[in-house]
Every structure is written in structure tokens, then in C-alpha cells.
Amino acid sequence: MDFEQLRQACTTCEKCGLCETRQHVVFGMGNPEAEVMFIGEGPGQNEDEQGLPFVGRSGKLLDQYLEAVDLYRDKNIFITNIVKCRPPQNRDPLPEEWDACLPWLREQFRIIRPRIIVCLGRIAAQRLIRPDFSVTKEHGQFFEKNGTWFMGTLHPAALLRNPRQKPDAFSDFVALREKIQQVCDHTYD
Questions:
Q1: Is residue 173 part of a domain?
Q2: Residue spans of alpha helices (H) in 76-134
């Protein structure tokens, strides 16, 4: 299956109950040859309405951090969520919803083959790095797993709720830029 076939299959997914309440599947966006992949927990209301990840106020903030380190959604990264459909009232996804969506994310990994994965927020980091990951204590640190570097950082929505954490998040993006320069071949071409 190539990337476009994967996108088409994902947009018609009915593997869990979230398909009944969604407006759009939020497959992800960006460069399918990106060496850097950003992954959040799941789409919110704005994302569900537009079918794109990280839009609205938190998406604008994320774009500011990305641009500060020369990363752009349409050029040199790919951005997605673990769960591709919005849970009602933005609740945490249920275990069966995680399980239903995980094959989509695995296929995205397989096709994109990122060198670095940035987990946006505690829940994504706990799912992808390790269950006891503390985003407030371990943000900005890199962990190598099977040849891929993982980093957890504060979720942009959390930064909007607690602006005092913005400098910490910005330092994570500076560390990300340094890691990209160390391990990536074409992100900054």
C-alpha cells in the first residue's frame, strides 16, 4: 500500500464507534518523505471540522514554534494524531479506539520512516515513548527506540492554558533543531 492508498483507506474507516460522530477523518498533513513526524493524541473540534491536524488557536501556536526552527507543515515535516477521529466532547480516546487506530499510525510510520518523532502532549508521549512518561519533567529529552529518536513536548493547547510553560516548549524546539542537524539528511535542504 502506498501513501495515497493508505490515506484513501483511512478516510473510510469504520473500525470503532468514533466514525459515527466524526465530520472528517484527520489523516494528517505534510511531506510523506519527512524525516520528522509530529504526533498528537487526537483531533479536536476544529480539526474534525476541517479534516486537518492542529488547526485553530493551538495549531497557530504550534506553527509559530515550527517556523522558529525552520519547519513547515507543507515542506519538511508530517503531522498527525494517534486517533484519527475526534472523540466526543474531546474526551480521552478509549482503549478500543486507540487499538482500532494504531494500525493506521503504524502504516504511516512504515511509509514515512521518520528519523525523529515528536509527541505533542502527555498522552501521545505515554502511548509512544513509555506509559509513565512525565511531559512536565522529561519534555525535550530524546529517547532512541529501534533507530528512531522520540521526544515528548508540551501540547500547544496546554501552553495556551498555561503560558508560563512557553519558554520550556520553545527550548524543546531548539533541541529538536539540534537533533535534526545531527541525525537527519534532508530536512533542512
A1: yes
A2: 95-112, 122-128
Question: Is residue 144 a contact partner of residue 129, using CB atoms and an 8 Å limit?
Answer: no
Give me the CATH number covering residue 154.
3.40.470.10
156: Cα within 13 Å, side-chain hemisphere: 22
Total count of domains within the chain: 1
pTM metric for this prediction: 0.97
Cα of 94 vs its chain's centroid, Å: 18
Tell me the pLDDT of the chain (189 aa) as tens digits. 899 999 999 999 999 999 999 999 999 999 999 999 999 999 999 999 999 999 999 999 999 999 999 999 999 999 999 999 999 998 989 999 999 999 999 999 999 999 999 999 999 999 999 999 999 999 999 999 999 999 999 999 999 999 999 999 999 999 999 999 999 999 999
In a domain, 120, yes or no: yes
